[in-house]
């Protein structure tokens, strides 16, 4: 992905919904050897609705010195945030047994943040935010609240004037059906800080791209 190309690390991916919290990548150039420290930043209570009186950020595991190890630790950190009633330390060495592991989480999504602080010689000075993909419906009626939660979360980040919006647009669906386009136009009507990125171009049906 584009974020992975910029950051040099792989983020959690799957065919279904994989990103279920905010992932904040803080990149900084350093003369020291490459390293990444994963942290958990809690801004909201367990139900994800009420802001905490004080934001806390705690380290999650030891510093990582191999970029290949970041993806697994980021997944573990996300699982810790999705199970706020449990001690987060129990997920530092968590083993994911199957693709249905998400079904064991107490939360489907959370507004709290997995932070990846990455330093190294070839690392640019940049902050990147990876957000859960916008959804339009859920299988269960009781999960429909997450449609609004994710949309509100996206809006809260992209409306910031200092943010550059990377709008990922899947070639599998019509652009009119992808809400990120309308959200970006609302907060950035001139398009001066919006970049559109097409994904899955191999899924374009033959002939549909012709004028």
Automatic annotation (TrEMBL):
<dbReference type="GO" id="GO:0000266">
    <property type="term" value="P:mitochondrial fission"/>
</dbReference>
<dbReference type="GO" id="GO:0008017">
    <property type="term" value="F:microtubule binding"/>
</dbReference>
<dbReference type="GO" id="GO:0005525">
    <property type="term" value="F:GTP binding"/>
</dbReference>
<dbReference type="InterPro" id="IPR001401">
    <property type="entry name" value="Dynamin_GTPase"/>
</dbReference>
<dbReference type="GO" id="GO:0006897">
    <property type="term" value="P:endocytosis"/>
</dbReference>
<dbReference type="InterPro" id="IPR045063">
    <property type="entry name" value="Dynamin_N"/>
</dbReference>
<feature type="domain" description="Dynamin-type G">
    <location>
        <begin position="1"/>
        <end position="211"/>
    </location>
</feature>
<dbReference type="InterPro" id="IPR030381">
    <property type="entry name" value="G_DYNAMIN_dom"/>
</dbReference>
<dbReference type="GO" id="GO:0005739">
    <property type="term" value="C:mitochondrion"/>
</dbReference>
<protein>
    <submittedName>
        <fullName>18669_t:CDS:1</fullName>
    </submittedName>
</protein>
<dbReference type="GO" id="GO:0003924">
    <property type="term" value="F:GTPase activity"/>
</dbReference>
<dbReference type="GO" id="GO:0016559">
    <property type="term" value="P:peroxisome fission"/>
</dbReference>
<dbReference type="InterPro" id="IPR022812">
    <property type="entry name" value="Dynamin"/>
</dbReference>
<dbReference type="GO" id="GO:0005874">
    <property type="term" value="C:microtubule"/>
</dbReference>
<dbReference type="GO" id="GO:0016020">
    <property type="term" value="C:membrane"/>
</dbReference>
<dbReference type="Pfam" id="PF00350">
    <property type="entry name" value="Dynamin_N"/>
</dbReference>
<dbReference type="GO" id="GO:0048312">
    <property type="term" value="P:intracellular distribution of mitochondria"/>
</dbReference>
<dbReference type="InterPro" id="IPR027417">
    <property type="entry name" value="P-loop_NTPase"/>
</dbReference>
